[in-house]
Amino acid sequence: MMANLIWNILCTRCMRVIVNQKRHFVSEAKNIRALHEEKWLPVIGLEVHAQINSKTKLFSSALNKFMAPPNSLVSEFDASMPGTLPVLNKECVRAAVLTSLALNCKINPRSTFDRKHYFYADMPHGYQITQHWNPIAVDGKVTFPTQQGQQSLHIERVQLEQDSGKSLHDNEDNVSLIDLNRAGVGLMEIVTSPGLSNAEDACAFVNELHLMLVTLGTCEGKMSEGQLRVDVNISLHKPGEPFGTRAEVKNINGMRILHQVIEHEIMRQTDLLDHGLVVEQETRGYDDVNRTTYSMRDKEMKTDYRFMPEPNLPPLQLYDDLTIHNAGVDGINIDDIRREIPLLPAQLRKILGDKYKLNQKEIEFLLDREMVDYFIQVSELLPNTPPTQVYHWLKIKVVALLADNGLMMSQWPISAKDFAELMSLKENNEINDSTAYEALTVAVKEKTTTPVHVIENMGWKMISDITMISSLCCDVIVAMETENPAVFEKYNVNNVKSNKKIVAKVVGRVFKASQGKMHTAIIKKTVQGLLNEKYKTNA
Predict the structure, then answer these.
(1) Model-level pTM?
(2) Which of 332, 303, 328 has the alpha carbon at shortest distance from 320?
(3) Is residue 462 within 8 Å of 429, Cβ to Cβ?
(4) 162, 184, 237, 472: which could form a disulfide with 244 (CB 3.0–4.6 Å)?
């Protein structure tokens, strides 16, 4: 016993030492980081490549589709067959204009296409068609929420360009396999100014941009599928001095990874500069396993790309309300597209907070899961229902069923009207909570019916007729007395507390006998009334 006591004391003391050491190291790390931040100021700029949500590719009629069999969506132009020419996809142009307007950019009425020469095995042409000299839009601004409040970031340019194919490296057989399905898919490259200083704000900006693109419908934003990729440029400099040499980390496809990349790269460059070494201007990759960046190649200078005008594409001419009469049949009116801009995340936050009284956490939950429009539609159909109740139904029931069925919110098969009708049944006590969820589950799986139809067809509506409820309660009480004549001997009209277990047993039996079609609160009230009347002498 004494040995155990001594052992426990020693273990406790050891744990205290470990905890204190851990606190010391964490404190030291924070202090070191604070000293670095005083000495070196990070400067961060982003290049976001957003895959355009279009049916076909940017310059060919090949379909734009994820997870198709390798090399099954490749046109002659995508494969760089001799004699093939690019044909600009009007749908991609409209998407770029809509996105640029939402980013508060100035649209260039006349933009041009250029060739950016570099050789990759997954780019058959040996060059990428982009908009280097005259992009479709410039000089925008995005305001986004951060932990410190609202922040704005300048958008330098938005340009249309081709995506490359994919190289799949088989290290075991020492071969590389090429899939050209993605080659030629339309991209919007959104380039920011170097106006960020930490990983948190960079992630907050990308998150806001992601929400905007999804809201606009110009990009589905599935980072895991490569639909939104980020290149991050990071440099350090001392206060009051010019910006330092930047390093670029390419093809980041996740928020968590973006945060890790920036944190690591700031510490890596800080360590180099603190030891009097030089930061090389280079392109780096990221090793997610070891959480470190690694050198890929020296950063090419712009002259290395040998930019030249694309000879097979004329300048892209856009119009407005004043000049559209000069356009042909396929003319694109910037003002028409401006009128199509939906409510953006910043506006939606205000509406959800002011009109529907949701808090910030609830608002971001709906925005992140693309549920805002659905929430508003259901809430408008249920004016007497608190919006927070609609929110909780979405958070608990809909999110669970989306996950169970592998669906995105855009694939949710239940209309707002049908969902509101289901909620009305629950509010009117015509069904209970478990019935509502079961009906939703069936309707989501079948996709051809509604929750209310499921309830009606299955006969799941609650019994609300008091005579029927009272009759069933009487039958159960009589049955219990027959089984055990002494079951209610201890029932005391004046002692509600002591009656709880007895009443609960009866309620459980009645609920089971009704197949769950009676509300337990109504059953309990009825049972108490019947027992009080029958055993009123038990006082």
Answers:
(1) 0.81
(2) 332
(3) yes
(4) 237
